[in-house]
Specification:
The chain has about 60 residues and is an all-alpha fold. It is about 30% helix and about 0% strand. The structure holds calcium ion (2 copies).
């Protein structure tokens, strides 16, 4: 399901920028989960989300 944070279908710097905006964010909730930056939907943006993001880096290019 994870194909990037923005909607262009790949995982690159555009997604990283959005991720960075929400880095260390708390209080992420449905339906947008901090605009998708909370990849594991844990409620905050932390290293677990970064790890997930890194797994998919440059996918879809
Ligand atoms: Ca993207
Ligand atoms: Ca998270």
């Amino acid at each position: 399901m994870i194909a990037g944070i923005d909607i262009d279908g790949d995982v690159d710097f555009g997604d990283y920028a959005m991720f960075a905006i929400h880095w260390a964010g708390v209080d992420c909730n449905e339906p947008d989960w901090c605009e998708g930056a909370d990849l594991d939907k844990s409620g905050f943006v932390d290293l677990y989300d970064l790890a997930k993001f890194a797994e998919h880096w440059l996918e879809g290019k």
